[in-house]
């Protein structure tokens, strides 16, 4: 995506104090976050390659990715194990070393939270979910994916969403190992859906023929979670 030059400058500087004069503070899950009205204005004027506005309706831009709670999983890379299973021909499991040996990419991704904040161009490094799925070879009739995570957390989405080129199992944020509050050692990032779909402390990718609502979906949140349609609640 070709960025507005002012967005590139503001993201590069990351000067919170300077931006505070053009922004405001709001509470999000008990913490204060700095909203940049200037970045919000610029992002609202940009379009994505698919023609949709870069900033979904109702969102405002903040400077840093927010952890957004959750029961922490084991942060040790040595304990990491990712299982890809379900309606597939070649189920498998890999450890963290094997994940790093796969083709890794670094993408600048916009992330949109259901609590109305957006981060622009978060630099995330990891393995594309579609590469993991390709290795497992989903069988005929496969239509959905459930991400499985620590303490029984799950998030569901259509297989087509999981296969997008910007959907990752990410293990680095801004060039550094993913911190535990963000789901380290590895988490899902599905930037085209609200952030609760991006399960932290990932343990499994399960392929299904029929949809299976996840943790938040069974508690009143929208099953699809498209930010541009403001699909927050069912």
What's the quick description here?
This protein is of the alpha+beta class.
Descriptive terms for the model:
single chain; alpha+beta; five-stranded mixed beta sheet
Can you put this structure into words, describing what you see?
With 234 residues, the protein is α+β, with helices and mostly antiparallel strands. The protein is 17% helix and 32% strand. It contains 6 helices and 13 strands. The protein has helices at residues 5-13, 16-20, 37-44, 96-101, 129-136, 159-162; strands at 23-28, 31-36, 60-62, 81-86, 92-95, 104-112, 117-128, 144-149, 154-158, 168-173, 176-177, 187-189, 202-208. The longest helix has 9 residues, at 5-13. It is globular, with a radius of gyration of 18 Å.
Strand content: 25-35%
Mean pLDDT: 89
Please give the share of residues in helix: 10-25%
The major beta sheet can be summarized as: 6 strands, mixed
Distance between the termini: 31 Å
Secondary-structure blueprint:
Blueprint: H1 5-13, H2 16-20, E1 23-28, E2 31-36, H3 37-44, E3 60-62, E4 81-86, E5 92-95, H4 96-101, E6 104-112, E7 117-128, H5 129-136, E8 144-149, E9 154-158, H6 159-162, E10 168-173, E11 176-177, E12 187-189, E13 202-208
Parallel strand pairs: 3-7, 4-13
Antiparallel strand pairs: 1-2, 4-5, 6-7, 7-10, 8-9, 8-13, 10-11, 10-12
């Amino acid at each position: 995506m070709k960025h507005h030059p002012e967005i590139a400058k503001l993201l590069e500087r990351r000067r919170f104090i300077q931006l505070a004069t053009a922004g405001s503070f709001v509470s999000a899950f008990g913490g204060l976050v700095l909203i940049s009205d200037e970045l919000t204005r610029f992002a609202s004027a940009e379009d994505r390659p698919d023609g949709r506005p870069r900033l979904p309706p109702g969102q405002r831009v903040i400077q840093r990715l927010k952890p957004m709670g959750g029961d922490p999983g084991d942060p040790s890379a040595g304990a990491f194990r990712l299982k890809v299973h379900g309606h597939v021909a070649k189920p498998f499991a890999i450890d963290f070393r094997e994940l790093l040996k796969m083709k890794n990419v670094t993408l600048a991704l916009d992330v949109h939270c259901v609590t109305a904040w957006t981060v622009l161009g978060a630099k995330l490094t990891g393995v594309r979910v579609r590469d993991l799925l390709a290795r497992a070879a989903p069988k005929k009739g496969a239509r959905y994916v459930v991400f499985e995570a620590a303490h029984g957390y799950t998030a569901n989405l259509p297989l087509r969403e999981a296969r997008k080129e910007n959907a990752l199992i990410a293990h680095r944020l801004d060039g550094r190992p993913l911190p535990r509050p963000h789901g380290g050692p590895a988490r899902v990032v599905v930037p085209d859906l609200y952030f609760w779909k991006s399960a932290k402390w990932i343990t499994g990718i399960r392929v299904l023929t029929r949809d299976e609502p996840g943790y938040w979906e069974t508690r009143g949140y929208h099953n699809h979670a498209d930010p541009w349609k403001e699909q927050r609640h069912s």
